[in-house]
Design goal:
This protein is of the alpha+beta class. It has a single domain, classed as Jelly Rolls (Sandwich). Helix content is 22%, strand content 26%. The chain has four helices and nine strands. The protein has a five-stranded antiparallel β-sheet, with helices on one face. A hairpin with a 5-residue loop joins strand 5 and strand 6. It is globular and about 45 Å long. The model has no long low-confidence stretch (mean pLDDT 94). It binds fe (ii) ion (FE2). The site of fe (ii) ion (FE2) has 4 residues, from loops.
Length: 200
């Protein structure tokens, strides 16, 4: 079994620490968190084929990092771990993003960290990151895998057509399977790491 890259392990550990720091507030999300991080004890394949690539929206990363540095521990440590692997990521746009609101296309970026197209190829878990420029809305979407977002910079979040709710750095958003959800950046960029539990 190949060893996992140290920077990637550091990012995984910091993500787990960020989620577990809020276990008491989000107890309904802890079953999936346990499944994800126990699966990740075994490294997957390391044969990523996607070359690193940045998009225009990545120019907002520095500002997002400044917001994250004001968050509670362990969010500043997670920001550092993320910044260390960011140059290796293949940032891309959401599929069909040209058909969303006109300002969405060049003002958002997503990247897979763990999972197909990421730094470690595997099927059971997908971890990625989403970045939105100030004021930009990430469109309402849903998907079968259960999902947990860890907020690194503040923004507003919606679930099940409810109202937009402000989330601060360190907060979690737990989306049960197929729940509709969306998010919007405030006056600063929105940055969040998301984890999907796909299972076997
Ligand atoms: Fe999602």
């Amino acid at each position: 079994m190949p060893d996992r890259d140290k920077k990637l392990q550091c990012l995984i550990d910091a993500t787990e620490a960020g989620i577990l720091a809020r276990a008491a507030d989000y107890s309904d999300a802890m079953v999936m968190a346990e499944q994800i991080f126990s699966a990740l004890k075994n490294p997957g394949g390391l044969d990523t084929k996607e070359p690193p690539a940045r998009l225009e929206a990545c120019g907002h990363l520095e500002n997002a990092y400044r917001q994250a540095s004001r968050g509670p521990e362990p969010i500043p440590a997670l920001r550092d771990a993320f910044a260390a692997i960011e140059p290796a990521l293949a940032w891309s746009r959401r599929p069909k993003s040209a058909q969303v609101a006109e300002d969405f296309y060049d003002n958002h970026a997503n990247a897979i960290i763990v999972g197909e197209g990421g730094l470690e190829t595997r099927r059971d878990v997908r971890i990625g990151v989403s970045l939105l420029a100030p004021e930009i809305v990430y469109p309402r979407h849903h998907h079968p895998p259960e999902e947990l977002y860890l907020v690194l910079s503040p923004g507003e979040w919606m679930q099940n057509d409810g109202p937009m709710v402000a989330k601060r750095a360190g907060d979690l958003v737990h989306n049960p399977p197929n729940v509709w959800h969306a998010m919007q950046a405030s006056k600063t960029p929105l940055l969040a790491i998301w984890c999907l539990w796909i299972g076997n």
